[in-house]
Each structure stands twice: as C-alpha cells, then as structure tokens.
Amino acid sequence: MSKCQHSGLPFMKMHGLGNDFVVIDARSGAKPVTPELARALGDRHRGVGFDQLAVVEAAEGADLGLTFWNADGSTSSACGNATRCIAAWEMARTERAALTLRTGRGVLAARKEDRLIAVNMGLPQLDWREIPLAERADTLHLPIPGDPVATGMGNPHCTFFVPDAEGADLTAHGRFETHPLFPERTNVQVTQVVAPDTLRVRVWERGVGPTLASGSSSCAAVVAAARRGLTGRRVTVDLDGGRLEIDWREDGVWMAGPTAHVFDGVLTAEWLEAL
Predict the structure, then answer these.
(1) Would you tell me how many other CB atoms lie within 10 Å of the CB of residue 197?
(2) How far is CA 51 from the centre of its chain?
C-alpha cells in the first residue's frame, strides 16, 4: 500500500464563480488519480464534490502541468476556471504575476490583471474535424434543432442562441451532450444576446450537468456570437455564478475573472482504502 494511502491525500477546494474544483498537487508524489477515485471524489454526498478535479503535475516547457477529470470519471483537455484558480494559487505561492500552464489544450499563459486572473485559452477550433464532429458539417449552423454553433476550445461546445436564457429549458438543451454529431460528447450553452458587448449564458457541462459557470463555455459562446455577427469580440458574459470578461484576440481567447481558494483538506487513509 502506498505511503499516501497510509497518510491520507491532501487536496484543495477552489471555485471560480461557483464552478468548483478539487485540486491535487501531485508534484510531491501523490496517489495517481483513476476514474474510480475521480468519481468517488466527485460524489457530493459520499466524497467531496466538484465540477472538475484538477491534478497539478510537473511539466516540461511550462511552470506546471494540469490534468482535468469530470465528476463521471472522464477526462477533459480544458477547464478555464480551474486553470485560473490554480494559476492564482501558484502565483501567490511563488510571488509571481505571470506563469505558464501545460494542459491538453497546449501551454496556456496566465497573468494578474488588477484583482482578476486572466488566462489565454488559445485560438478557437472552428473546423469540424478539430472540434471534433462525427462528420462534415457547417460549424456555424449545425444540422440540429435550434440551429446551434459548434466550437472547439480544447473541448467541444454546442451553443444555442435563445431569446430568454432564464426561461430556456437547460435540461432539454443539455440532452444534446450525447448527440451523435459529437463523438466525444459536448458542453452545451443556452445564450441570450443582451447587448453587442454582453451575453447571458447558462451552461450544461459535459460529464457534470448544470453548472454555475464555465470558462471554456464562456469563451465558446463569445466566439459563436462574434462569428454570427451578434456581438463584438470583447464581451462580458453573465453566468449563473457571476461574470467573466472574454476577449477574442489575435493570439487567442483571453478570459478574466475572480477566483477563490476555499479550504485545504486531507482525504483519510480509510476512505481511500475503501475505494
């Protein structure tokens, strides 16, 4: 039995606008995360509960590496709010104002902007093969009821534009997570254009369900709206949990918002051994 099982497994709880995460720093040799551990940790009644689990690792060519797990035990290449939260923690720990993080999306740059933490989520993926879709389709007008837009931000997104985001049935839209056109499933956003520089977005997250906020979903919604000519490229996104500032620039989609490090804890050896 490993040392970390005998002594327990330290973790941190963080959130960005209510989009919550368990974070494990594996650079000190923590227990490897498995789908079973991710599912058990994600159980809000018998574990800790999270929208995503993020594992911090050493990374070549970057200050640190991140691996993301969903609550259903699947993995994701991108999680914007978790990236911002971990960047804020690492900046405070190392007394730095900028750093780089290697994810499945590539190496992302993060920096402090006043009291906010900003991260460059990279250039959006607009080709059907990159998102990916199961077959060739117009990513600006998918052949799906409701005429959504497909966008890749390191993970797939399906954005529906609706006249009233508050009144939209998020669960009904969320069923498109498993639409055959998305072989890796998809995140779903119901999006209302409030003004040329403001969107109201509600999110159904792949492998999670309804969530208070999502960074990559916010980026995808802005890219979709700008491509359709509904907004500019610099947009405020109002989510159930708060507000993000999105700026689609030449070097990528920048996302800025607040972060919170809520508490530190230790998973007991007994709980780990029971998995």
Answers:
(1) 12
(2) 9
For residue 17, the domain's CATH number is 3.10.310.10
Instruction: Please tell me whether the peptide bond between 258 and the residue prior to it is cis, using omega within 30 degrees of 0.
Output: no
Tokens representing residue 10 in the block: 């330290």
Task: Give the residues across from 9 on adjacent strands.
Answer: 267
Q: Tell me how long the chain is.
A: 275
Lookup: tokens for 65: 């590496």
Asked if the structure places residue 133 within a domain, the reply is no
Beta strands 106-113 and 98-103, pairing class: antiparallel
Contact of 41 with 105, CB cutoff 8 Å:
no
Residue numbers of the domain that contains 56: 3-121+259-273
pLDDT in tens, 144-186: 999 999 999 999 999 999 999 999 999 999 999 999 999 999 9
φ, ψ dihedrals at 18, nearest 5°: 90, -10
- Model confidence pLDDT, tens digit, residues 237-252: 999 999 999 999 999 9
What residue type is assigned to position 202 of the chain? R
DSSP 190-236: EEEEEETTEEEEEEEETTTEEES--HHHHHHHHHHHHHTTSS-SEEE
